[in-house]
Amino acid sequence: MSKYLILIYQDESLTRQAEGESISASYQEFMQRRAANLLSGAALHPSSTATSVRRDGAGGFAVTDGPFIESKEALGGYYLVEADDLDEALQIGKEVPAGVGVEVWPVRVVS
């Protein structure tokens, strides 16, 4: 089986309303249904708590508050899953009850 990272995008104005609440029923149902595929996952704090680190071209780093881009949609969480192939990973991604949508990325394993 291969590993895939499913990045969950949410409308931050809606996510802030639910902050501090327990896991929604739709996410609980998804996690129970796909328990065999889920390796890990977590919700993220709002993008206002993120810090970006970029190389400055002179051998140092520029550290700034916030994510790389400003957007109404923000990365809200992730799942690391195991799937037989990309088609199964995409099916799992379609089942995530995300507000905006998800991205499915194959995880490259290096040794």
What's a concise summary of this model?
This protein is 23% helix and 39% strand.
Could you give the topology of this structure?
Blueprint: E1 2-11, H1 12-18, H2 25-33, E2 38-43, E3 51-55, E4 61-65, E5 73-83, H3 86-95, E6 101-106
Antiparallel strand pairs: 1-5, 1-6, 2-5, 3-4
Any overview of this molecule?
This protein is an alpha+beta fold and 111 residues long. It has a single domain, classed as 2-Layer Sandwich (Alpha-Beta Plaits). The chain is 23% helix and 39% strand. The chain has 3 helices and 6 strands, in the order βααββββαβ. The protein has a 4-stranded antiparallel β-sheet. A two-stranded antiparallel sheet has the order 3-4. The protein is globular. The model has no long low-confidence stretch (mean pLDDT 87).
Unreliable segments of 5+ consecutive residues: none
Estimate the mean pLDDT confidence: 87
- Classify the helix fraction into a percent range: 10-25%
Can you tell me the number of structural domains?
A: 1
The main β sheet shows up as: 4 strands, antiparallel
The CATH superfamily title: Dimeric alpha+beta barrel
Structural class: alpha+beta
Q: What is the percentage of strand-forming residues?
A: 35-45%
Query: What is the straight-line distance between the termini?
Result: 17 Å
- CATH class placement: Alpha Beta
- What is the count of DSSP helices, taking H or I runs of 4+ residues? 3
CATH architectural grouping: 2-Layer Sandwich
Strand order of the largest sheet: 2-5-1-6
Q: Judging from the principal axes of the Cα atoms, what is the shape?
A: globular
The count of DSSP E runs of length 2 or more, i.e. the number of strands, is: 6
And the CATH topology? Alpha-Beta Plaits
Pattern of helices and strands: EHHEEEEHE
Instruction: Calculate Rg over CA atoms.
Output: 16 Å
